[in-house]
Amino acid sequence: MFLGAVGMARKKYKVVPPKIDGDPKFNLVYRAHQNSVENYPIFLAGLWTAAIFFHQVPAAIFGVIYMVGRELYFRGYSAAAAKRGPGFIISSLTLLALFSLTALGAASTAYHAYAGHHYLKGLLSYIPVPFT
After folding, report:
1. pTM of this prediction?
2. For 41, left (φ over 0), alpha (ψ -120 to 50), or beta?
Protein backbone atom coordinates (compact mmCIF):
# COMPACT_ATOMS: atom_id res chain seq x y z
CA MET A 1 0.00 0.00 0.00
CA PHE A 2 2.67 2.54 1.01
CA LEU A 3 5.35 1.11 -1.28
CA GLY A 4 3.17 1.71 -4.32
CA ALA A 5 2.72 5.33 -3.29
CA VAL A 6 6.48 5.83 -3.07
CA GLY A 7 6.91 4.25 -6.51
CA MET A 8 4.28 6.52 -8.02
CA ALA A 9 5.85 9.56 -6.30
CA ARG A 10 9.24 8.57 -7.73
CA LYS A 11 7.73 8.61 -11.23
CA LYS A 12 5.78 11.82 -10.68
CA TYR A 13 8.67 13.81 -9.20
CA LYS A 14 11.39 12.09 -11.29
CA VAL A 15 13.43 10.71 -8.37
CA VAL A 16 15.44 7.78 -9.71
CA PRO A 17 16.43 4.98 -7.27
CA PRO A 18 18.59 4.75 -5.22
CA LYS A 19 18.16 8.49 -4.59
CA ILE A 20 15.93 9.24 -1.64
CA ASP A 21 15.97 13.01 -1.84
CA GLY A 22 14.34 15.26 -4.37
CA ASP A 23 11.23 17.36 -4.68
CA PRO A 24 9.87 18.35 -1.24
CA LYS A 25 6.56 16.62 -2.03
CA PHE A 26 8.42 13.39 -2.80
CA ASN A 27 10.27 13.74 0.50
CA LEU A 28 6.94 13.88 2.35
CA VAL A 29 5.73 10.66 0.73
CA TYR A 30 9.05 8.95 1.33
CA ARG A 31 9.21 10.02 5.01
CA ALA A 32 5.62 8.88 5.59
CA HIS A 33 6.51 5.49 4.13
CA GLN A 34 9.76 5.23 6.08
CA ASN A 35 8.07 6.19 9.34
CA SER A 36 5.47 3.48 8.80
CA VAL A 37 8.19 0.91 8.13
CA GLU A 38 10.03 1.99 11.29
CA ASN A 39 6.89 1.56 13.42
CA TYR A 40 5.81 -1.78 11.97
CA PRO A 41 7.94 -3.99 14.30
CA ILE A 42 6.60 -2.14 17.34
CA PHE A 43 3.05 -2.71 16.13
CA LEU A 44 3.65 -6.42 15.48
CA ALA A 45 5.18 -6.91 18.92
CA GLY A 46 2.19 -5.24 20.57
CA LEU A 47 -0.33 -7.12 18.44
CA TRP A 48 1.18 -10.55 19.01
CA THR A 49 1.81 -10.14 22.74
CA ALA A 50 -1.67 -8.73 23.34
CA ALA A 51 -3.19 -11.67 21.45
CA ILE A 52 -1.07 -14.20 23.37
CA PHE A 53 -1.30 -12.77 26.88
CA PHE A 54 -4.75 -11.18 26.81
CA HIS A 55 -7.11 -12.26 24.02
CA GLN A 56 -7.00 -12.42 20.24
CA VAL A 57 -10.29 -10.64 19.49
CA PRO A 58 -9.53 -7.29 21.20
CA ALA A 59 -5.99 -7.47 19.81
CA ALA A 60 -7.34 -7.96 16.28
CA ILE A 61 -9.81 -5.08 16.69
CA PHE A 62 -7.04 -2.76 17.87
CA GLY A 63 -4.88 -4.04 15.00
CA VAL A 64 -7.46 -2.93 12.46
CA ILE A 65 -7.82 0.46 14.17
CA TYR A 66 -4.03 0.85 14.08
CA MET A 67 -3.93 0.14 10.34
CA VAL A 68 -6.65 2.74 9.72
CA GLY A 69 -4.65 5.22 11.82
CA ARG A 70 -1.48 4.51 9.84
CA GLU A 71 -3.35 5.02 6.57
CA LEU A 72 -4.64 8.38 7.83
CA TYR A 73 -1.12 9.24 8.97
CA PHE A 74 0.34 8.30 5.60
CA ARG A 75 -2.22 10.28 3.61
CA GLY A 76 -1.91 13.30 5.89
CA TYR A 77 1.88 13.31 5.98
CA SER A 78 2.06 12.82 2.21
CA ALA A 79 -0.05 15.95 1.73
CA ALA A 80 1.71 18.13 4.34
CA ALA A 81 3.71 17.35 7.46
CA ALA A 82 1.27 19.35 9.60
CA LYS A 83 -1.62 17.06 8.56
CA ARG A 84 -0.16 13.90 10.11
CA GLY A 85 -1.60 14.60 13.57
CA PRO A 86 -4.93 12.69 13.56
CA GLY A 87 -3.38 9.51 12.16
CA PHE A 88 -0.47 9.77 14.59
CA ILE A 89 -2.82 10.11 17.56
CA ILE A 90 -4.97 7.16 16.48
CA SER A 91 -2.02 4.86 15.86
CA SER A 92 -0.21 5.94 19.05
CA LEU A 93 -3.27 5.42 21.26
CA THR A 94 -3.84 2.05 19.63
CA LEU A 95 -0.26 1.00 20.40
CA LEU A 96 -0.80 2.13 23.98
CA ALA A 97 -3.97 0.03 24.16
CA LEU A 98 -2.20 -3.04 22.74
CA PHE A 99 0.65 -2.79 25.22
CA SER A 100 -1.84 -2.16 28.05
CA LEU A 101 -3.63 -5.39 27.11
CA THR A 102 -0.26 -7.13 27.08
CA ALA A 103 0.59 -5.82 30.55
CA LEU A 104 -2.82 -6.78 31.93
CA GLY A 105 -2.61 -10.25 30.43
CA ALA A 106 0.97 -10.79 31.59
CA ALA A 107 0.04 -9.66 35.12
CA SER A 108 -2.89 -12.06 35.09
CA THR A 109 -0.64 -14.90 33.92
CA ALA A 110 1.94 -14.13 36.62
CA TYR A 111 -0.77 -13.90 39.28
CA HIS A 112 -2.19 -17.22 38.11
CA ALA A 113 1.25 -18.84 38.35
CA TYR A 114 1.86 -17.36 41.82
CA ALA A 115 -1.58 -17.54 43.47
CA GLY A 116 -3.32 -20.17 41.40
CA HIS A 117 -6.19 -17.86 40.44
CA HIS A 118 -6.80 -16.49 36.96
CA TYR A 119 -8.65 -13.22 37.59
CA LEU A 120 -9.27 -12.51 33.89
CA LYS A 121 -10.73 -15.92 33.07
CA GLY A 122 -14.32 -14.93 33.88
CA LEU A 123 -14.11 -11.68 31.96
CA LEU A 124 -12.50 -13.25 28.92
CA SER A 125 -15.04 -16.06 28.76
CA TYR A 126 -17.62 -13.53 27.47
CA ILE A 127 -15.53 -12.62 24.41
CA PRO A 128 -16.29 -14.95 21.51
CA VAL A 129 -13.33 -16.59 19.83
CA PRO A 130 -13.85 -17.21 16.12
CA PHE A 131 -12.93 -20.53 14.54
CA THR A 132 -12.79 -22.65 17.70
Report:
1. 0.87
2. alpha
